[in-house]
Amino acid sequence: MLDHPAFATSLRLAQFAKAGSWETAWSFSRAKLPSQAAVREYLAGANEVAFEVFFGDAFFGARFDGSAPEVEARSLTCLAALDGASDGASFFAGLSRDDAFTGLGRNIDFTEIGAVDAWRSVGAFRAAAPREALRHFEDLWSSLAASAVAHDGTHKKAVEFACRHPLPHWFALPVSAPLPPYDLDRSRLREACEFAARAGLDEH
Question: pLDDT band at 148, cuts 50/70/90?
Fold first, then answer.
């Protein structure tokens, strides 16, 4: 997934969220990154947090669970990678300095389609890993068209390819029209799944 052109562009913004609440995420622009002290204050000893960085409408995310020092260390790794990045390639190179981020995107476990920054409140549509999703694409599209995600008209939509290892993380690509009501785009969804199927060589 790291080879997808969407993740080679400049970084737009990033955000942290606790307990999967993207509706209340702490967002900041690439041009105005928070200090390490501000990140520590936000975490406040948390044992879980998720992080996302946006490349236009595509985004990468990861979730950190563990002791407070471990969660803080992973979060500060993301901040440092952002600080030294001019584009996607340099951002992921920065992440790779931490062994916890080795092997990103190699094993895609499942697919989700959801409303950006409203994943929980709208409700995501879960599907199989990309290869299996493609084998049953007509059924997937039919079920997706009847879902809450398809009927939401106030948020952009994305397909996430989720991986459990080396830590929970995901790569997301836009799959809706650029303007309200952000209708799902069948062709973009199929193209995203086809790329992910090729990329996830070790897919379960």
Answer: very high
